[in-house]
Amino acid sequence: MPARTSRVTGALGAVALLSTLAACGGSSSAATPLSHTGSSAAAHPEWSKYTFTIGDNGGDGGQALSKITGAFANAPYKVKFARFTFGPPLVQAAASGDIDLGSVGDVPPITGAAKEYGFKIVAVERSLRPTRPIENIIVPKGSPIRTLADLKGKKLAVPQGSSAHGLALNALSSVGLTPKDVHLVFLDPAAGATAFAGGKVDAWAIWNPQSALAVQQGARILVKGLPPIDQTSSYYVASDTSLKDPVKRAALTDVLKRLAAQFHWAVQHPAQYAQAISQEEGIPLSDAKTVLPTMESRVTPVGKADIAAEQQLGNAFLTAHQISRKVDVPAITDNLLPAGFDSSKPN
C-alpha cells in the first residue's frame, strides 16, 4: 500500500465518539447554499432541545460537505459527527444510542441484526454510477494470483462484518470456494493496509478510496464489487430509541433529508465535492478527483429490491456460518423517507 493510502486508512483511526465530535448546525454563520432545505426553527421550536449525532464511515466527505453546503446552518437542532473505522462499530453505536443516524455498507446491518442490536435500516444511499464498484478485491503489483480460484489456500484480508466481507464471501462462492478454502484474515482497514503493503497477505477486500488509490499506485483489481456478487448501495441505519419517539423521529427525518440534499448538491458541484473528500480524508486533491465518480450517490427510501438483496445476503452469511442466527430483513427496515422522495427538491 502506498504511503498516502496508508495515511487515509490511518486517518480513519479508531472509533471517534463524543469527545472528538465537530459540532455544527443552528448557530453556523458559514455560507449556506442549502439553507432553504429542511424545516425551520420557527416551524419546529420543539426540536431545539435535540443534538443529533451522525455516524460517519469516511470516504464520502459528508462532514466536510455539511460545512461547505451549510446543510444544517438553519436547522432547529444541532448535529455532531462521529468518525468510525468501518460499519460494524457504527451499527453497534446506533443500537446503543451513541449515534442517531449513520451510513454503512450492506453487511453491517446483517451482522448487527444477527447479534440482535436495536437499530433499523431507514434509507438507501444509492450509487449514481452502478457500473463502477465502490469496493474490490485487490492483489499487489506483480502478484501471481490471476483468478478467484487462485485464492485457494491464500491469505485474504477483510474487515470482519463489513461490506467487503460480503464481497469476499460471494466472490469465493461464485467459484465454488468457501471461507474454509482460504485464510480469511480479519483486519480493520488500517491494519489491512499495513498487512497489504508489507506482503503479509495475498489479497485485500476493501472499499474506496483505499482500493482506488492502491490501484493507482500499482495494485491490481482481482474482482470488482459489482452485482451479482456485490451491491453498490449503502444503507442508513438509525437508533431504535430515536425512532420510537414521534417528535424525535420527525426531527431525524429532517436530518436525513438535509443529508440527501447535500449529496445531491455535491454531485452538481464536483469541484467542491472533490475538495471536501480531499479535506476530510487528508489526501491530495488529484486523488480525491480519482475516487470521486465512485462516491456520487443519491438518498432514497428502502425498496423491495433492496430488502430482497439484503435478505439474500443475510441467508448467504448464515449458510457460510459467518453469523449464528437467521436475519429477518423486513423486521429491521423502517423507512424514514416518504415514497417517491426526491432529494433534488427542497422539503
Automatic annotation (TrEMBL):
Task: Recall the GO molecular function terms of this protein's record.
Answer: ATPase-coupled transmembrane transporter activity
Q: Which organism is it from?
A: Streptantibioticus silvisoli
Keywords tagged on the record: Signal, Transport
The signal peptide stretch is 1-30
Any one cellular component term from GO for this entry?
periplasmic space
Subcellular localization is given as: Periplasm
Q: What is the annotated role of this protein in its UniProt record?
A: Part of a binding-protein-dependent transport system for aliphatic sulfonates. Putative binding protein.
Q: Which Gene3D superfamilies match?
A: Periplasmic binding protein-like II
**Pfam families named in the record:** NMT1
Name under which the protein is recorded: Putative aliphatic sulfonates-binding protein
Which family is this protein grouped under? Belongs to the bacterial solute-binding protein SsuA/TauA family.
Domain (Solute-binding protein family 3/N-terminal) spans 51-284
Cite the InterPro entries for this sequence: ABC_SsuA_sub-bd, Solute-binding_3/MltF_N, SsuA/THI5
